[in-house]
Design goal:
The chain has 234 residues and is an all-beta fold. Helix content is 0%, strand content 59%. It is elongated.
């Protein structure tokens, strides 16, 4: 992004297809990459990034399920330059989130991102559009939730929310494709982020449901809105 400070927030819709085997009962299937309701009404997280020099920035973020830190090195989206991109590494932990159910999740990740220029215009706002292409690996323990059929023994005084919850050890191969609209002071990103998930065979002693849980892929639709405070004059 070049030397400066960035504040951002994003909304997301996560979709997956998972199966939970239940001996003696029908299997449960559905989308599982969310907590409580899978509705992008509230922002997923807030983020702050600091770039002391043009080729380096550090960021921190906190959301409903986790929080994290990361470092990126690369080259920013300069006017007239076709390529921009970076290499990034980071970590997330559920300890930063507000919900007890997701506290045990964590991950360590690395990815590369490129932003080829699509078009740009001059003027005071210096508008441009860039594509986003990304590929990375994410390893850790990930939270999943599946809604169980209504339990006839479930009291009427409850909220009617009856989920199966688990935290499974996984390795994910993550990609992203999207478009970024940006100028000197702000940006809007829309991206589709698919991933492949490989079960790392979580110990049944720490996750009773994991041996009966099946999920190999998912996708997240993301809208990210950011504001920039450049350290250099326009």
């Amino acid at each position: 992004m070049g030397p400066g400070l960035k504040m951002a927030t994003d909304w997301s819709l996560a979709l997956s297809y998972a199966t939970l085997e239940r001996p003696g009962e029908s299997d449960v299937t559905g989308s599982s990459d969310h907590y409580l309701l899978n509705l992008p009404v509230l922002p997923r997280r807030i983020e702050m990034r600091l770039s002391p020099v043009s080729w380096l920035d550090v960021g921190t973020e906190v959301g409903w399920l986790d929080g994290g830190l990361d470092v990126r090195v690369g080259f920013p989206a300069e006017r007239g330059e076709f390529w921009a991109g970076n290499l990034a590494v980071g970590a997330r932990t559920g300890q930063a989130g507000p919900f007890k159910d997701t506290k045990r999740q964590y991950s360590y990740w690395a990815r590369t991102e490129v932003y080829p220029l699509l078009d740009e215009s001059g003027g005071a706002l210096q508008k441009s559009r860039r594509a986003l292409l990304s590929l990375g690996v994410d390893v850790g323990a990930f939270y999943h939730q599946l809604e169980l059929p209504e339990d006839p023994n479930y009291g009427e005084d409850g909220f009617g929310f009856n989920p199966a919850q688990l935290i499974r050890d996984e390795m994910r191969v993550e990609a992203a494709a999207g478009i970024v609209f940006l100028n000197r002071r702000a940006s809007v990103l829309v991206a589709l982020e698919p991933y492949l998930a490989f079960d790392l065979e979580t110990d049944a002693g720490s996750c009773e449901l994991c041996p009966r849980y099946r999920q190999s892929a998912g996708v997240v639709l993301v809208l990210d809105v950011a504001l920039f405070l450049p350290f250099e004059d326009d």
